[in-house]
Amino acid sequence: MLYSRFASGLETYCDNPRRFVLAFSGGLDSRVLLHLMGQFLRQHPQHRCLAVHVHHGLSNNADCWSQHCLDWAQAEGIDCVVERVNLELTNRRSVEQLARDERYKALKKHFHPQDILLTAQHADDQLETVLLALKRGSGPAGLAAMAECTSFAGGYHLRPLLGVTRLQIEEYGRACQLDWVEDESNQDTRYDRNFLRHEVAPQLIARWPGIRKAVARSASLCGEQDALLEELLSEKLDQAMHHDKSLIISQLGSERIGKQLIRHWLGRCGVLMPSQAQLEQIWHSVVNAKPDANPQLCWNQVQVRRYQQRLYLIKQWPDIRHWQQECQLDQPCCLPQDLGVLTLKQIGQGQLRKPKPGEVVTVRFEPEGLEVKPFGRSGKRKIKKLFQEYGVPSWNRRRTPLIYYGEELAAVAGLFVVEAFHGRDCDLEWHNDTSDVQ
């Protein structure tokens, strides 16, 4: 019965041979998912699957669990890899959220476009997720909880057990005489989800046996409402987004529409949604701040800032003002923090002179106190003023590469060459492949 339901769910997305990536913790749910997938592949050999076990290092048993996962996957004829992650625990983010984020990053490393990610969430997980969303005071998007199928990294994320209860999964596992790992942290009711799982959900289910289906129906309705709102606002959001993915404030309209556009803009950028209070702050303290202000709001390692009447979403990067790297002619210089690659190329019609013998070329990021004369300009100017004139936002001024010949600034990547270093021998190529979040 469970296999038939699982197989029919997968076949909906298998019009062509597919590659599946299965998130495999080794716990009951994913152990059953692996077993079901093994049967599916034996009946549909045109498809392939890779199981990925993420080793979080949070338990003394983690090494043992990894070996079990490798053994069980081998028994099912499924390739399996172990991805080790290091969790940088902070007060700002819960262990659960941090582990989840790192888990999906690890899964993406093994995911190709058009692949299907399989995870083992079920009906009881959905109930807990909705209760957690209610606890946070979420709106329709949060209360929509988990969809059976969503887009993921150029492919799909499928939850084929979402309509199945935990009890049904356990009965299947015992009937098939499967072994699985028991994570001791799952019993720790200090974690919100575990508290709901062990203390709250059983009482709700005992009182109202149909509550899982009712909650799933409500989540589905909330998902439909949120999707409708996104569809209705999609064209307006397209008009409000600048080509650099910033948001044009004059296009936001009324407060009610504007806040929804900001929410959907953040959704497109793929960041954790701010709370209602934080969204109110973005509107009143950032969007409607005084024209000469430099407002910002930070949450979950990102921040929204305003510059020249546009909203920008940026990562909260560590300071790199002391970073320095030697740069050789015609050799790519890899920059830190997703800033791409810089190359000083010898070229016939360039803008920079060639370095003199013994003149070391370095890339740096500390502009403080510099005063230079760009080629073609009259007089020296402080680099802070030049950044303003060239329209460089304040948060990018210590993230713009500075090219030094010896101890003298020769050029600012993407902006100008200092007059004393102008020539026709070389040019700078800066390939800055950043993500949606700048």
Feature tags:
12 helices, 438 residues, Chorismate Mutase Domain, subunit A, five-stranded antiparallel sheet, disordered C terminus, 20 strands, 3 domains, Rossmann fold, globular, alpha+beta
* CATH topology term of the largest domain: Rossmann fold
Secondary structure class reads: alpha+beta
Main sheet strand line-up: 3-2-1-4-6-5
What would you report as the Rg, rounded to the nearest angstrom?
27 Å
**What is the helix fraction of residues, given as a range?**
25-40%
**Total of DSSP H or I helical runs spanning 4+ residues:** 12
List low-confidence stretches: 434-438
Mean pLDDT score: 91
Q: Summarize the main sheet.
A: 6 strands, mixed
Catalytic activity: cytidine(34) in tRNA(Ile2) + L-lysine + ATP = lysidine(34) in tRNA(Ile2) + AMP + diphosphate + H(+)
InterPro entries: Lysidine-tRNA-synth_C, Rossmann-like_a/b/a_fold, TilS/TtcA_N, tRNA_Ile_lys_synt, tRNA_Ile_lys_synt_N, tRNA_Ile_lys_synt_subst-bd
Subcellular location: Cytoplasm
Enzyme class: ligase
Short description:
By secondary structure, this protein is α+β, with helices and mostly antiparallel strands. 37% of the residues lie in helices and 19% in strands.
